Amino acid sequence: VPEPVSESLKLLGFLDVENTPCARHSILYGSLGSVVAGFGHFLFTSRIRRSCDVGVGGFILVTLGCWFHCRYNYAKQRIQERIAREEIKKKILYEGTHLDPERKHNGSSSN
Amino acid sequence: MAHAAQVGLQDATSPIMEELITFHDHALMIIFLICFLVLYALFLTLTTKLTSTNISDAQEMETIWTILPAIILVLIALPSLRILYMTDEINDPSFTIKSIGHQWYWTYEYTDYGGLIFNSYMLPPLFLEPGDLRLLDVDNRVVLPVEAPVRMMITSQDVLHSWAVPTLGLKTDAIPGRLNQTTFTATRPGVYYGQCSEICGANHSFMPIVLELIPLKIFEMGPVFAL
Description:
The complex is a heterodimer.
Chain A: E1 10-11, E2 15-16, H1 23-45, H2 48-94, H3 101-110
Antiparallel strand pairs in A: 1-2
Chain B: H1 15-47, H2 59-87, E1 95-102, E2 105-110, E3 116-120, E4 142-145, E5 150-156, E6 161-165, E7 170-174, E8 180-184, E9 190-195, E10 208-214, H3 216-220
Parallel strand pairs in B: 1-5, 4-10
Antiparallel strand pairs in B: 1-2, 2-3, 5-8, 6-7, 9-10
Helix pairs in contact in B: 1-2
Keywords (chain B): Copper, Electron transport, Magnesium, Membrane, Metal-binding, Mitochondrion, Mitochondrion inner membrane, Respiratory chain, Translocase, Transmembrane, Transmembrane helix, Transport
GO molecular function, one term (chain B): copper ion binding
Binding site for Cu cation A2 (chain B): 196, 198, 200, 204
């Protein structure tokens, strides 16, 4: 029977930051962006309330931007890993036979 | 299988389930950000000292909070539809199995290469061996090959049932008088559990599904048919 995994940090009770790929990265950059945007706005305007609004907006935008960027790269990486896995399997299976892609390639290049 | 008190999805055993988990993460991040925004708005509402009740003529705000949710819905809908159509792709199954729901057990028919038909009953607690799983283990498992597309034809002999295996991302209703089809390709061997997912009477909770996925080479040697 699988044992329960140790409790992972869940933001607002449902976003598992530790086990969701790119979540921790996005939230951290979002927090940084929020602090930079909010504090920067305050330094220029000295308006507390508006700076908090800018901070929250910055958090949402930076988190979303990092999230999409990271997930896109993660998806690309998974596709490349799958292609590599398939090619390795094919190479092991067909090495030395007439179906070997390297043999076909070498044969055509020598011709 | 799920561990005790598990809330999240189980690890994926098929490419479709991997896509579903990815989509779930994507939707959850959007939901988190919306919840964060709403909590912030609530905090502001509860802590404001402003008492003006002039809430008319906010055209810009109304435009923003109409268009923005529409954009968010599109961001959620596009991946969702992509996966929906992916599940309907014809992937040339190499093996077909029929699954028939009864009150309260499943019948499986392997009719492609012979006429193997068997029933799958939940193991009663008194018959459990040490290490067996209560309410999940069955007397006869469904043995299938890994990395081969499999077609499941699902129906019922009496009332509505539903054939579900969460780790494969499968849930298909078993409807009397109707044949539903689902296909899957398992990516790793193992024993995977599911439970009937449509209320079907007193023992609805006691008709589990157990798949035993084995390497194709071993499956071809015919252990399934050596009963």
